[in-house]
Amino acid sequence: MRVAEETGDSGAGEHAYKILAWSHISPADHVQGIEHAKQGLLIAKEVGERGAERHAHRILAKSHIRLGKYQHAIESAKQGISMAKEVGDRRGEGHAHRILAESCTH
User: Fold this and answer.
1) Cβ–Cβ < 8 Å for 23, 35
2) In this structure, what CATH number is given to the domain that contains residue 41?
3) What is the domain count for the chain?
């Protein structure tokens, strides 16, 4: 991330936060994963990277599920569905629906 920040490469910075978010989700540090996903989401919005925004919403939803914050998970999943529909990303839409279903069954 430091190199991305020094060079002004926002896309690389967003990607670094995405990797950090997933790495914290795996060992169950979901709170830290959420923070990194939020940072990635902000950068993705700044640079207009819609795919990265959708991905960040998926990470947020999965993390919120694991923390038992189902309403937050539902909101993130719905944002992911909406964004996937905007660009015709059926695979992304399917992933987001699966996460939404998982959120609603708890």
Assistant:
1) no
2) 1.25.40.10
3) 1
